[in-house]
Amino acid sequence: MRQILITVMLLLTVVAIYASIVGGDGGMREQIRSSGTGMAGALSRVSP
């Protein structure tokens, strides 16, 4: 029973850390979106 509790607590910790890194303020998702916007702007200014 103790091992199951430790495993569940570890999984919850990993999920919380992942959520804060990816979805938090200034997280990876926001940085990827801003990079994509910048690249799209740069590509639209390129003349063929």
Your description of this structure?
With 48 residues, the protein is mainly alpha-helical. Helices cover 83% and strands 0% of the residues. It has two helices and no strands. The protein is rod-shaped, with a radius of gyration of 19 Å. The termini are far apart.
Short summary:
The protein has 48 residues and is mostly helical. The protein contains 2 helices and no strands. The protein is 83% helix and 0% strand.
Features:
83% helix, 48 residues, rod-shaped, 2 helices
What's the helical proportion of residues?
A: over 70%
DSSP strand count? 0
Q: Give the helix tally.
A: 2
In terms of DSSP E residues, the strand content is under 5%
Radius of gyration: 19 Å
Mean pLDDT: 87
The backbone outline, from C-alpha atoms, is rod-shaped
Question: What is the straight-line distance between the termini?
Answer: 66 Å
Low-confidence stretches: none
Query: Quick one: biggest sheet?
Result: none
Classify the secondary structure makeup into a structural class: mainly alpha
SSE string? HH
What order do the helices and strands come in, and which of them pair?
Blueprint: H1 2-23, H2 28-45
